[in-house]
């Protein structure tokens, strides 16, 4: 009997290991087959697409069902749009369907979406139409559903609430309408909800059960009534711009401890802007422009604003009267402030003046200060007259300054309100 030396013994075991790897690869990749039900759905989906919208070299043009989809992902056919995983022994299951923005046109709800292992479905930027398929509720392992920027219409079905594994839902920029179903509270793992750019109406539902929701965008719809007192406590970004909400900002919004971005602009909100928004420990961007606010609550003490994280604040196009808020000059991070087109009067605060030219003392520079369209009077800060166009953005037009010469870019052509208009607003304006 031959005796193997140590080198021969090592080569033998390496060869055996290599052969085992080849067999493993062969069985998992060559002999694996896509589950017949998944193939049925993929065929049904491709058949639902208008063939005239499938261009040469697009993803869907490579789908050839004379071959097994998952076993040919990296061949000449099925070159993109799919991902598969071996789930049951040698059976492949489709786990992702993602199409490029290629102007595909088709009726989504003509397909029975029975893909139980699907994790990602992305049809962003195409021309799919019809209603949101009720059968989307079958996709119980789905984590990402993206149908942004299509032509989907109708209402959101309650079956969407069955997607308890969903983390991202993009329904934005379609033609969806009606009220949002309370069934959305079934999305217990949702982190991002994009609803903007539709025709949703009625009251916005209480979604406070969605304790993992970080991003809620529902701008550019027709939601009405008062804002709910209850929202997910985890919210980081909250945008409801361009709806028809009315009333005051509820305390439930102000108390969102993790909130960094709040945009409620272009609504019909009124009352006073709460002081606690200016002392919030996380809020970085606050946009309340184009509403009907009449006043601003000052923080109890100026020291409270020293911990403010606000970088950008926009209160333009409201009905706010009184002097320019001095405490805003103390917000250390604030670099963009717009108070345009209100009813502010009085002098420009000293801190505003210094923060445009040379802030110092740990204060950020005012890179953008918009004060036009008010009733501000007095002299323009002398240091501002040395500013060069393009170095900062300052707008002072349409106020009551005694003199704002054309040669200074911040005077916006030197146009100011007439003496009679300024006197009619307040007799103390010189």
TrEMBL record:
The Disease resistance R13L4/SHOC-2-like LRR domain extends over 102-264
Cited Pfam families: LRR_1, LRR_14
One GO CC term on file: membrane
Top-level taxon = Eukaryota
What is the first-listed, main subcellular location in coarse terms?
A: membrane
GO biological process terms, alphabetically, are: defense response; response to other organism
Q: Which keywords does the record carry?
A: Glycoprotein, Leucine-rich repeat, Membrane, Repeat, Signal
| Localization of this protein | Membrane
Name this protein carries in UniProt: Disease resistance R13L4/SHOC-2-like LRR domain-containing protein
Its source organism is Lithospermum erythrorhizon
């Amino acid at each position: 009997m031959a005796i193997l030396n140590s080198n021969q013994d090592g080569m033998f075991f390496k060869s055996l290991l290599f052969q085992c790897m080849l067999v493993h690869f062969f069985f998992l990749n060559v002999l694996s087959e896509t589950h017949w039900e998944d193939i049925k759905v993929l065929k049904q989906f491709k058949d639902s697409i208008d063939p005239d919208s499938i261009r040469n070299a697009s993803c869907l043009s490579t789908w050839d069902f004379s071959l097994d989809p998952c076993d040919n992902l990296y061949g000449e056919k099925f070159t993109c749009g799919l991902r598969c995983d071996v789930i049951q022994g040698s059976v492949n299951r489709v786990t992702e369907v993602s199409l490029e923005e290629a102007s595909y046109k088709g009726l989504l709800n003509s397909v029975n979406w029975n893909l139980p292992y699907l994790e990602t479905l992305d049809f962003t930027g195409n021309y799919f139409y019809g209603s949101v398929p009720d059968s989307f509720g079958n996709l119980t392992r789905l984590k990402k559903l993206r149908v942004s920027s299509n032509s989907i219409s109708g209402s959101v079905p309650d079956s969407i609430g069955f997607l308890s594994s969903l983390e991202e839902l993009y329904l934005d920029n379609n033609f969806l309408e009606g009220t949002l179903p309370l069934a959305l509270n079934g999305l217990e793992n949702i982190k991002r909800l994009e609803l903007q750019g539709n025709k949703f109406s009625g009251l916005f539902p209480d979604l406070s059960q969605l304790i993992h929701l970080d991003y809620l965008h529902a701008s550019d719809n027709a939601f009405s009534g008062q804002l709910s007192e209850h929202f997910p406590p985890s919210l980081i970004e909250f945008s409801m711009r361009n709806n028809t909400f009315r009333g005051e900002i509820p305390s439930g919004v102000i108390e969102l401890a993790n909130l960094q971005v709040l945009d409620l602009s272009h609504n019909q909100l009124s009352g006073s802007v709460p002081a606690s928004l200016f002392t919030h420990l996380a809020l970085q961007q606050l946009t309340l422009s184009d509403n009907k606010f009449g006043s601003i609550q000052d923080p109890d003490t100026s020291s409270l604003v020293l911990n403010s994280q606000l970088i950008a604040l926009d209160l333009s196009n409201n009905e706010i009267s009184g002097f320019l808020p001095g405490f805003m000059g103390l917000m250390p991070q604030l670099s963009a402030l717009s108070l345009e087109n209100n009813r502010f009067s009085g002098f420009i605060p000293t801190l505003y003046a210094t923060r445009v030219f040379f802030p110092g003392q740990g204060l950020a520079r005012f890179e953008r200060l918009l004060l036009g369209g008010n009733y501000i009077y007095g002299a323009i800060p002398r240091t501002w007259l040395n500013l060069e166009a393009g170095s900062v953005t300052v707008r002072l037009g349409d106020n009551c300054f005694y003199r704002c010469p054309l040669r200074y870019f911040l005077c916006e052509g030197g146009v100011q309100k007439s003496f009679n208009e300024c006197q009619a607003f307040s007799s103390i304006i010189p």
